[in-house]
Protein: KamA family radical SAM protein
Amino acid sequence: MKEKITPYLRSIAGSASVANQYNAGGSEPFSDDTYNDPLHEDDHEVVKGLVHKYSNRALIKVSYQCAAHCRFCTRIRQIGNAEGTLTDDNINNIVTYLHQHPEIDDVILSGGDPFYTAKLTYQLLQQLKVIHSIKVFRIGTRLPLQLPEAFQSDAIQLLLSLIDEIAKQRPFYILLHINHPDELTEQALEAIAMLRIHRVTLLSQTVFLKGINDSFETLHQLYTQLHHKGVIPYYLYHCDAVKGIQHFTVDIEKEKEIATQLTATLSGIAYPTYIIDIEDGHGKIPVPLNFINEASGKLTDFRNKEHEIK
Ligand code: SF4
Structure:
């Protein structure tokens, strides 16, 4: 992966919690030869760009391009590689596969960042919207936090009007990958507010990152702000086991303790599900939190008092 960062991110890189997610100048470049695919996505890429791992869902990688390259990325092995960009033939093959597999009712556009390649995503969505077996659309993005000014562009405005049109008929979710409250600048919040004008549901995804957001206070602040801005916290991930990025991995017991405190203190719609995406492609597992005393079998409430299960 080539290191890449936007001028906007450089302008807020005074925050170490932002800078350390990227190469903001001080870090050694990563070496490309260690990265692997612990989620086994490549094994399930049934046609170029479409990963069919779970029966009713398909992941479509629109490209491997992003505005900036995150150093902890699960797909760090691919990010920045021009070969990932879907061609007209690739899109036709994806559409054919989806017609042949009407059990796929939920498609997730990712990559790379589908909003960064807005024209290509528009072209793909034009073809997907006429497949009636698709009942739910999702797009994962980090662009509001990496290049918020892009949301003023004609290409993104056109894409948003198409999303709005689809969302009149079918649920459309935008999954914002946000790791730290310092990413929620005024400009980023303006871009997020622009998404809210459309008929989409905004969800957030966060990865636990050592030295960046592995504290209760940081994540409590992040989720409180997201809650206030109409973004529903969805998943809080343990960092995937990609070789070469393990220094970002937080101890699981520490994560469980933080996730337990978040669940005990935030409103029910303001805390995410803490998840581990099991290595070797076995899927996402919600991690049991510390609300049960395993020795006594009693439940612990948010004031730390124990109760019998009756
Ligand atoms: S924006 Fe997303 S896909 Fe792109 S490098 Fe960052 S985490 Fe990976």
Q: What stands out?
A: The radius of gyration is 20 Å. Residues 151 and 189 are 11 Å apart (CA to CA). Residues 66, 69-70, 73, 75, 79, 111-113, 142, 177 surround iron/sulfur cluster (CB under 6 Å).
